[in-house]
Write a structure and sequence with these properties.
By secondary structure, this protein is an all-alpha fold. Helices cover about 80% and strands about 0% of the residues. Helix 1 runs antiparallel to helix 9, helix 6 runs antiparallel to helix 12 and helix 9 runs antiparallel to helix 10.
């Protein structure tokens, strides 16, 4: 039961973060959204890292991996936020959720064996991305925006996949708090501080609740997943990966967002492929 609740909690929180950033990224520039989300996330995660203390095994090699995790996560989020500014939540979230497929592909390149079932799911996810990219909108500008959003979210999935693979590499060497904190600190140092110094850090009262909700929801989502995974990795991972489906459902009810039939088929293929691949790898 704890594994189920943890996975569902993670999916709900990550979907909440996706919807919150989809709204805030249309109020202020995506790079400013990223900066504020990183600031909120750092404030929320720093006390836990400080309480656990500096890991005695932390060396130059692990610091390098942590910096890679941070850079991949920050870059991926910036691409996602940019995609959400112009694209549909259901499509962007579904493609970005293919991060696990990317991590699996990297693992294969690194020498890990891939089962026939996992290979089939990777093909299904790739076909889903192609279908999700198709738009029959008569408005040329909307079709162009859909294409750009697909490319941005695909790039985000690639970066997130690198981050996932890197996090998996150090997960047994460092406590969770020290895997959570670096991406947020990298975001603060590389994005928030330069924007502040240049006077380009934008903020609005309307966007404030959304960026705060996104920053906190991401932390709670990962914490919920971690608790659930301790009682059942496969269940928590499969349920947590369904944040893309929840994002599409929430966007339909709250934002009246509709997908074309082929796009809906593509999103469904990605969601199913990600869930099955996650289960196989877990």
């Amino acid at each position: 039961m704890i594994a189920i609740l943890g996975g569902l909690g993670a999916a709900v929180m990550w979907a909440t973060a996706t919807l919150a950033t989809s709204r805030s990224s249309r109020m202020i520039p995506p790079v400013s959204v990223l900066a504020w989300v990183m600031i909120v996330g750092s404030a929320a995660s720093l006390p836990f890292a400080a309480a656990s203390g500096v890991p005695p095994q932390l060396d130059a090699g692990l610091i390098g991996w942590l910096l890679l995790i941070g850079a991949a996560n920050v870059g991926g989020l910036l691409l996602v936020y940019s995609a959400l500014r112009i694209g549909k939540v259901g499509i962007v979230a579904a493609i970005a959720s293919a991060e696990g497929a990317v991590a699996a592909t990297i693992a294969v390149v690194a020498g890990e064996r891939l089962s026939a079932g996992a290979a089939t799911m990777l093909v299904l996810i790739a076909l889903g991305v192609i279908l999700a990219s198709l738009s029959r909108d008569r408005d040329v500008a909307k079709r162009r925006h859909n294409g750009i959003a697909v490319m941005l979210s695909s790039g985000a999935a690639l970066l997130f996949g690198v981050g996932l693979f890197s996090a998996g590499h150090v997960s047994t060497d460092l406590p969770l708090s020290w895997i959570l904190l670096p991406p947020r600190l990298v975001g603060v140092v590389a994005v928030a501080v330069p924007l502040l110094l240049l006077g380009k850090l934008r903020f609005s009262r309307a966007a404030a609740p959304y960026v705060i909700a996104a920053g906190i929801a991401e932390i709670i989502g990962l914490g919920s997943y971690t608790v659930g995974a301790r009682h059942g990795i496969a269940i928590a991972a499969v349920l947590g990966s369904q944040f893309a489906a929840l994002s599409a459902i929430f966007a339909f009810f709250f934002f009246r967002e509709r997908l074309a039939r082929l796009q809906l088929v593509g999103v469904s293929a990605i969601v199913v492929g990600v869930a099955v691949l996650t289960a196989l790898r877990a």
